[in-house]
Amino acid sequence: MAGSEFDHPGVRRSRSVLHARGRFTLADQAFEAELIDLSLSGARFRMPAGFSADDGVPLGLELICGEARSPRLAGRLVRANAENFAVHFEHLGAQDEAALAAFIERHGEFADPIDR
Question: What is the mean pLDDT of residues 46-60?
Fold first, then answer.
């Protein structure tokens, strides 16, 4: 992809297609789920068996793509239904965001190269 978000002030890339799964922790339980959608602000996953949580619950999250693992992320459950759930990333500083963007660029492709 030509350029980067830094070449276009006020413009950022938004969504990515990444064939991965998420490994996440909720209290003292661990779950894995298929990744459906991903952006630098959050992710949506297929609902795994046995998972149940209220909106707002904090989660620890790691994306797994083959043998590669993303940086460890913190987030909150923002919505869930019988088929899927969404997590909003929290406390994602500039360094973590850059590491996540690099992971996505190495292992996925942006569906919308530039979002204005």
Answer: 89
